[in-house]
Amino acid sequence: EVRLVESGGGLVQPGGSLRLSCAPSGFTFSLVAMGWVRQGPGKGLEWVSQINHNGALTDYANSVKGRFTISRDNAKNTLYLQLDSLQIEDTAMYYCVKFSSSGYYSADPSTLPRGQGTQVTVSS
Known about the structure:
Elements: E1 3-7, E2 10-12, E3 18-25, E4 34-39, E5 45-51, E6 58-60, E7 68-73, E8 78-83, E9 92-98, E10 118-122
Parallel strand pairs: 2-10
Antiparallel strand pairs: 1-3, 3-8, 4-5, 4-9, 5-6, 7-8, 9-10
């Protein structure tokens, strides 16, 4: 059974930083691409970032490019999302998602397995 457990969220002031983690189980993490999506208040799921199976390829939403960094440690079976220069608009529940292949592809994020999420709140 695929299981994804996110952690690291919290309350932070604008301009602050957080590091999110995702601990997967139930599949061979090093063989599949992963991603992060978020859902802000009253909004739908939004892609944030994607990473291929070995970390060589990444992609970011324009809204977070240059501020967020996705990475993975296949030896530790962990996916990360470093959030820097946080803005109030980044307030959302953040979820890690699992692709079904080694590379990421265009997909409706609601169709991919995801965890329970970790809340990020940016407020002064």
